[in-house]
UniProtKB/TrEMBL annotation:
<keyword id="KW-0732">Signal</keyword>
<feature type="signal peptide">
    <location>
        <begin position="1"/>
        <end position="25"/>
    </location>
</feature>
<dbReference type="Pfam" id="PF05938">
    <property type="entry name" value="Self-incomp_S1"/>
</dbReference>
<protein>
    <recommendedName>
        <fullName>S-protein homolog</fullName>
    </recommendedName>
</protein>
<keyword id="KW-0964">Secreted</keyword>
<keyword id="KW-0713">Self-incompatibility</keyword>
<comment type="similarity">
    <text>Belongs to the plant self-incompatibility (S1) protein family.</text>
</comment>
<dbReference type="InterPro" id="IPR010264">
    <property type="entry name" value="Self-incomp_S1"/>
</dbReference>
Amino acid sequence: MGNLKSVALPLLLAVSIMHLPFSESLWFFNYHIHVTNDLPLLNSPPGKPNLFLRCKSKNKDIGERAMVKGQDYTWDTKINLSQTTLFFCNARWEGRKSRSFDAFVANRADRQCSVYHMSCMWSVREDGIYFSRNNATWFNEYPW
């Protein structure tokens, strides 16, 4: 009987996974999150950080990064089995503005991040934080 359980259970699990709709099996994919500093230099000298970005989830703090113009902050994640994976960031433009935003949300990843190489593309700009599905067309999702 023990041998039957050891064969039947993995087989049942495999068949169940194969019948899941595409959006419900997304936890197998590796997503890439990119946040780029596209802020103007204004009074900051070149090479001096003007954006401070801290990103984390409930279980993982990726840490704060001091970013110079054009620098990209990148990390990878997968969707957990309960499909509740969430990474949020706080962007602080030195001496000017601060804003929090959701950089990765599991239940919107299949719509927003699967178009361009499984990547969520963000750009921090003078008037807000922009998102792109394809790295070509950008939308101001989080105005300052």
